[in-house]
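Let us practice reading a record.
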Amino acid sequence: MTDKFICNNCGNCCRFEKEVQKFVNYGNFYKWGGSEFTPGLALLDFEVSRYNSAAEKLGISLKIEPEVMLIDIINKQNIIIHWKLAEKSCPFLKENKCLIYEFRSLICQMHPLDTTLKEYPLAENYKLDLEFIESPCPKQVFKKNQSVSMTYREFLKTIYDAYGDAFKARYILETIDIYYLQALDFLEGTGKVTWMYGPDPDEAFRISQNWPQKSISDFLKENNVYFDFEARAKKEVKKIIESLEH
C-alpha cells in the first residue's frame, strides 16, 4: 500500500489563476457568461449554502455566481448545475490555513486528484489513460498521460491507497453529477423541458442571459424528482471503500 496524500499547506490550491483557454460547451451544458473563463472555485448547491452561512458568521464577503448551466428553451429559464466562488483567492484562506476546513467543498477535498473514477469500463486488463493535474503536490501515482493496464478494481484501489480522502471526495462529486444527469434526462424525456443544444457558448448566453435562473435543487424539487444526493452518494462511496479495504 502506498502512502495517503499529505497536504504540505502551501495554499496554492486556494488561489485561482485566470485560465487562458476558451470554454467549449460539452453537449448541452453551457457556461454562464459565454466562452471567457474567469477565476474561481466550483460549488454545488448545498456547498453554496454552507459557504454563505460560514461567511456570515465570520464577517466575510463572498461573490458567488452561476458557472455551469442547462438552458431550458421551453420554459425560458437557466438551470444552474454548478456555482462558482468568483474570487482570485479563497476568502476563507488565512495564513495558508482554511477557516472552514471541516466542510470545505468537494473540489477542495479532492485536490490534487483530477482523474475520472467512474467512467472506465469494468473490464479486465483495460488500458486506462490517466491524467493528473500539474501541481506542486508531491503525491502523483501516475505520470501525466501515462497509460497503464489493470482491472477497474485495481485502478480504484491504487488511487484510493494513494489519495485516501481525496479519492472519497472525487467519487462523491462524480456520483452526485451522475444523479443530476439521470434526473435531468428523465425530465427531458417527459417533455417538460427541452435543453438548448448547438449554439456556441457566447450565442447561447446572448439568448438566455435575461432569462430567470433556478438552482438545480429547486428545479428538481419543483418537478418531484429531488432526493438527498449528497447523502446517497456518501453511502455509495462508503460501500466502494469497504470493498477496496477487504
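A brief commentary: The longest strand covers residues 64-72.
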